[in-house]
């Protein structure tokens, strides 16, 4: 039986000092968050999450997302000063949800659920894949955005939602850099987003534990 793909590393076009200022432990350009590695390559690399490496995918042609293969074992990151213990989910945004979903399934990604309904970000369709410790949340680009305007364009690695044990502790650590905590879409969970003033390229959110968005 083949193994499901899992995330090894996210390559991010940010300066390491910006992540340190946001309460993450960074050694050189590396930051381990649970089982996932973040490589902070500097602003000259582009913007946001510019690439990733995955294990056990049947194909590295993932609808335009720059992808490399990895055989490295999972990281073992310790809790961070901002309260982060792991990654809850990685967000990918696409102009064509059905196309990207089919591409990921063909590559061996484990689709668990499709969802239709409005979200705070304006999307109305989502697909959820299990990637070991991490959930991959595939989001249809909201109407009127540049990504939605190019239906033949690629899927894009867009954001990270980190898991924290106590969101109030994270709010205390980050102060004005964190938006107002609110109830998440998933019942029983709370979420808050990092403000742009923090200077991080990807969309960043922090979530409390709960029953989860999809079956484990």
How far from one another are the termini? Answer: 18 Å
Average predicted local confidence, pLDDT: 93
Number of strands: 13
Largest sheet: 8 strands, mixed
Beta-sheet strand percentage?
A: 35-45%
Percent helix: 10-25%
Count of separate DSSP helical elements: 3
Q: H/E order of the elements?
A: EHEEEEEHEEEEHEEE
Q: In the CATH classification, which architecture applies?
A: Roll
Radius of gyration: 16 Å
If you consult CATH, what is the topology? Answer: 2,3-Dihydroxybiphenyl 1,2-Dioxygenase, domain 1
Shape summary? globular
Tally of structural domains:
1
Spatial ordering of strands, largest sheet = 7-8-9-6-10-13-12-11
CATH domain class name: Alpha Beta
Task: Please characterize this protein's 3D structure.
With 216 residues, the protein is mainly beta. The chain has one domain: 2,3-Dihydroxybiphenyl 1,2-Dioxygenase, domain 1, CATH 3.10.180.10. Helices cover 11% and strands 36% of the residues. The chain contains three helices and 13 strands. An eight-stranded mixed beta sheet has the order 7-8-9-6-10-13-12-11, with helices on one face. The longest helix is centred in the middle third of the chain and has 10 residues. The chain is globular. It starts with 5 loop residues before the first strand and ends in a 9-residue tail after the last strand. The C terminus is likely disordered.
């Amino acid at each position: 039986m083949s193994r499901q793909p899992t995330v090894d590393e996210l390559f991010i076009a940010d300066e390491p000092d910006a992540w340190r200022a946001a309460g993450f432990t960074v050694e050189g350009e590396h930051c381990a968050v649970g089982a996932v590695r973040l490589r902070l390559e500097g602003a000259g690399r582009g913007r946001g999450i510019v690439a990733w490496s995955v294990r056990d995918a049947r194909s590295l042609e993932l609808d335009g997302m720059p992808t490399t293969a990895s055989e490295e074992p999972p990281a073992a990151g310790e809790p961070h000063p901002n309260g982060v213990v792991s990654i809850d989910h990685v967000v990918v945004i696409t102009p064509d949800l059905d196309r990207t979903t089919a591409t990921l399934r063909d590559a061996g990604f484990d689709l668990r659920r499709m969802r239709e309904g409005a979200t705070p970000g304006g999307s109305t369709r989502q697909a959820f894949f299990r990637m070991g410790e991490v959930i991959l949340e595939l989001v249809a680009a909201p109407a009127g955005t540049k990504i939605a305007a190019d239906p033949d364009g690629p899927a894009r690695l867009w954001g990270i939602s980190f898991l924290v044990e106590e969101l109030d502790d994270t709010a205390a650590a980050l102060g004005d850099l964190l938006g107002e905590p609110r109830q998440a879409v998933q019942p029983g969970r709370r979420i808050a987003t990092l403000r742009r003033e923090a200077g991080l390229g990807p969309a960043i959110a922090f979530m409390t534990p709960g029953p989860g968005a999809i079956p484990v």
